[in-house]
Write a structure and sequence with these properties.
The chain is α/β, with parallel strands linked by helices. It is 37% helix and 17% strand. Bound molecules: iron/sulfur cluster (2 copies). The site of one iron/sulfur cluster has 11 residues, from helix 13 and helix 14.
């Protein structure tokens, strides 16, 4: 007998079927993150039923399973509204108060692709730090986050270790006065200045996480990450990674990767597994974009990897060097926004009390406002950022099955390159393929 209730439901647009060679099928929903394993016969039946939207063909237990996990939904619901709700909940989460401090815009390296092209010899002054303390104190009182830690970025933050020590002590006091738990701090550095003494000092002032960048093996790295006199930095930075591994709880080695250097990276990980194969080292590959430095246009940056290729390299490293931990071991998870650049309580503070949205966009025109009398005063650029959210004029992302995982990729790239920004397309699709394959192997 036809069940009338089933007429008011439809298939979710975020369902993904994954079938392995032996016919085992997984059904996953990228919005709810529900995942079920199906036999070949059941998968065929459900696939056809969902495609034809003929839910009357389903047994009651099948129907309940699909509805309870969001594979079928009320047909009046526009799922994009749900994605939007989740996104804005992330954007306006006032308890998510985060601060990155850029103590200097100066850098000791001269990488040709550096997005901070207009490097300036500007530091945050002592007087400006007084304003920053006032700002953090006020925001901690208003936001009441669960805990609070600082991220250090640059320029090159290790040019300012004395300052980092002083500021950390002061932040300890501000947190204590506000009864907010002091979380550990983190730092992103090129690693060149990290010696034993420096690592000890950073660790002692509460920095427990460090990210150091390599651009491939010695040859590839020394072509890109050079000192101002043109000298390569590979050996020194590799030694810094060895030191960092002894001091910090988490060392992320970020490999800037493109079509020319990824084979060298794989060779390096293989030859130096005594360095990289440690429990507290995470390997992360990111896209090397030569076009950011203006030496080549985006169209002519033929070495740049697309999302699918980038994920393939990460997956290859994960798979080949099983004992090397990578960021890609993270479980399937729900995403609100892409990063702090989209959250209204995430602030990047630089010299002259300028506020930025993204640590990778610290140019003259990127500032989104200032700290004045301990308060954030946004300028017109701040409001412009919200024009680049993924829901504006973006048919491609709005009809994409992967949007709840991807959220349109890096917002800074969307702002710079326009919407939709295709750089990331394929990344999450391939991530799921890799995860599903691993999962099926575990289940078999
Ligand atoms: S950027 Fe590409 S993968 Fe991401 S949501 Fe948009 S269309 Fe989908
Ligand atoms: S805006 Fe893009 S580059 Fe900047 S932090 Fe976010 S994801 Fe990274």
């Amino acid at each position: 007998m036809k069940c009338m209730e089933k007429d008011v439901y439809k298939s979710s647009q975020y369902n993904i079927f994954f079938e392995d060679k032996a016919g085992v099928t997984l059904l996953y929903n990228t919005f709810t993150t529900a995942l079920i394993k199906l036999t070949k016969e059941k998968a065929e039946k459900i696939k056809i039923t969902l495609k034809l939207n003929d839910l009357n063909e389903l047994e009651t237990d099948e129907y309940n399973l699909l509805i309870n996990n969001g594979f079928i939904i009320n047909n009046k619901i526009n799922e994009i509204d749900q994605v939007k709700f989740r996104y804005y909940r992330g954007v306006f989460n006032s308890r998510d108060f985060r601060v990155t401090i850029v103590p200097t815009l100066n850098c000791n390296l001269n990488c040709p692709y550096c997005f901070e092209r207009d490097k300036r010899d500007e530091n945050i002054t002592l007087k400006e730090y007084e304003e920053i303390y006032k700002f953090i104190d006020k925001q901690l009182f208003i936001c009441q986050p669960n805990d609070f830690g600082i991220s250090w970025y640059g320029g090159e933050p290790l040019l300012e270790v004395d300052t980092i020590e002083n500021i950390s002590n002061k932040i300890d006091i501000i947190c204590k006065n506000n009864n907010i738990k002091r979380a550990c701090d983190s730092i992103v550095t090129n690693g060149y200045l990290l010696d034993e003494d420096c690592a000890k000092r950073l660790f002692n002032c509460g920095i427990k996480k460090i990210q150091i960048t390599l651009d491939g093996d010695r040859d590839a790295h020394n072509k890109q990450r050079i000192l101002k006199n043109g000298e390569g930095t590979f050996d020194k930075i590799l030694n810094s990674i060895i030191i960092a591994q002894r001091y910090f709880e988490l060392v992320t080695v970020r490999f800037n990767t493109n079509k020319s250097n990824h084979e060298g990276i794989v060779r390096l990980l293989k030859n130096k597994s005594d360095i990289f194969n440690k429990n507290n080292i995470v390997i992360s590959v990111g896209r090397l974009k030569n076009y950011l430095g203006g030496i080549v246009s985006k169209e002519n940056d033929n070495d740049c990897l697309n999302g699918f290729e980038l994920q393939n390299i990460q997956g290859y490293i994960d798979n080949y060097y099983k004992r090397v931990k990578t960021v890609n071991k993270m479980p399937i998870q729900i995403k609100h926004t892409n990063c702090g650049a989209e959250s209204h309580k995430c602030f990047i503070i630089g010299p002259k009390l300028k506020i930025y949205k993204c640590a990778e966009a610290l140019g003259y025109s990127d500032s989104v406002g200032f700290i004045v009398d301990g308060d954030f005063q946004p300028n017109e650029v701040f409001w412009q950022w919200f024009n680049y959210n993924i829901f504006n004029n973006n048919e491609k992302c709005m009809s994409c099955k992967y949007v709840p995982m991807c959220m349109g990729g890096c917002p800074s790239s969307r702002k710079r390159l326009g919407i939709p920004n295709n750089e990331i397309c394929g990344y999450w699709e391939q991530w799921l393929n890799i995860k599903f394959n691993e999962l099926i192997n575990t289940l078999n």
